[in-house]
Specification:
The two termini are 27 Å apart. This protein has two domains: 159 residues, 3-Layer(aba) Sandwich (Rossmann fold); 107 residues, Rossmann fold (3-Layer(aba) Sandwich). It is an alpha/beta fold. Helices cover 40% and strands 20% of the residues. It has eleven helices and twelve strands.
Length: 275
């Protein structure tokens, strides 16, 4: 058991406590799926801050304040580790969170490095929010790994609100994706990096538009592996064998979360909650 103190609270981190996950909305549930697949016995609590989605158009200060609010809520709910399942929150707020809270915090960054190492066309596309593309952490990673590579950065304007509404297949989504991928196709990219945890939900739609030789990379699996590695290193993996409690809370309507997680409906609970 670990004790962590912060602003008068003592956080009692027991290994059978839940993994806490937050996102600007429903998108990070794509990360939750990877965590649940790799760590099926772990309790999880997921916060969808859909009332404030998307984070991508907000200032760094606003994004940091929302991330602090979500982290504090997860700590009160007993989280033993925090997963920031939002690229925009990671790139803008994770340094502040790690400084303020003495608890392991896992972030998600666009998988620029594997794309840069594997591209044969020396041309990659990145589809992300404005908040991620304009962040210092993103610029540093891009500079580090893409020296001799053509990088086409596209702000996925309008995609998050459609995904939040559960509108994955409509004509509006298709026309937006055609518009966003056009410069990438023109630049002959052979890798497209998804820089927003909402976007894995539209991989089938992207595949239908992009040429067959284009590989789409998202970071969900890497985040799940890192979460497992950190918990293992601290001897904090759950040691009970009973069915885990898998809780989802949203401060907006529950319909889209239930729709995106319909294959898990027997195992999970989805509730509306103010936070």
């Amino acid at each position: 058991m670990c004790h962590f103190e912060h602003i008068g609270y003592i956080y009692d981190m027991k290994k059978n406590n839940p993994i806490g996950i937050f996102d600007s909305g429903v998108g990070g549930s794509s990360i939750w799926k990877e965590i649940n697949k790799l760590l099926p016995l772990e309790h999880t609590i997921y916060l969808a801050d859909s009332k404030n989605a998307p984070y991508g158009n907000k200032t760094a200060e606003e994004i940091t304040n929302l991330s602090i609010k979500n982290t504090e809520k997860l700590l009160v709910l007993g989280a033993k580790i925090i997963v920031v399942a939002c690229n925009t929150a990671t790139t803008n707020a994770i340094a502040t969170l790690r400084k303020n809270y003495d608890i392991p915090i896992i972030g998600i960054e666009p998988a620029i490095k594997p794309a840069a190492l594997q591209t044969t066309a020396k041309s990659i596309g990145i589809l992300a929010t404005k908040g991620t593309l304009s962040s210092a952490l993103f610029s540093k990673t891009t500079r580090e790994f893409t020296k001799d590579i053509n990088v086409v950065e596209i702000i996925g304007e309008g995609l998050v609100p459609l995904i939040e509404a559960g509108n994955l297949d409509g004509p509006e989504m298709v026309s937006l994706l055609k518009k966003h991928t056009k410069p990438m196709i023109a630049a002959n990219v052979d890798y497209v990096v998804l820089g927003c945890s909402h976007y894995p939900y539209i991989i089938p739609q992207l595949k239908a538009i992009l040429p067959d030789n284009v590989t789409i990379i998202d970071s969900g699996e890497a985040v799940a592996r890192q979460t497992k590695t950190v918990l293992q290193s601290m001897d904090m993996l759950r040691d009970e064998n009973t069915a885990p409690k898998l809780q989802f809370f949203t401060n907006a309507e529950t319909d889209t979360l239930k729709f995106l997680l319909k294959n898990y409906s027997e195992k999970i609970s989805v509730e509306k909650k103010e936070f």
